[in-house]
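Protein details
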Amino acid sequence: MFPIKPMSEYKPDWVKKAREDYKKLDKTHKHTHITLCSGIFELFKFGWYVPMWYDVYITTGKDKRGFSWRVAEKQMSMLSDENIIDTHTDKITKFIPRRKDRIDNIVKINTPYRIIAPKNIKFLFLPMPYPDHFDYESSSGILDPAVNSEVNVQLYWNIKEGERFIKAGSPLMQIVPITDKDLTMVCREANEKEMNWVNKKPYFSSFSFSPIRNKIKESYHKYFNKS
């Protein structure tokens, strides 16, 4: 219903207003307009963005820890084996610098998407660039699909009190491949082989007291026969 899309389809409302303003200017003033800023609009061309995949209301309260959420139908939260919305413990969040008006908890949006990619290609996860608002914004990080293929969005929540609505299809996070190669993204249903790999992930995450990433990466490349 709401596939991962190319960044070229990302159209914040302010961009439309800026372009309308640009069209009204005479030629002597057009050369200094923001619509000509390559630093901004080149960024809108790289990679893809992950949209919200269902409607949700998220509520925070003043001097209250955490957040609450509600979806359109209760069965929505039962469609996945994992929580569709989650958070992290203090062991992860307490050392992360935060904005003044940001709540302590991260709103973790677990999506059904996974990334399978050629060997040695990693992905930079970024907040959506120049959004229309800053009620929430994705954290940044790098995903190595050989270690973990899950595409989950870690949202910093910047509203300490109030309710906000995230509509299905709303852009949440930008994904940029880290490679010099020319890539094509295919967003589709997982096939049987890929689902078998996804189903092995809980074992990889729990069989050892210590992270054994090299062993997992070796298994990943062997399984998908990536060169």
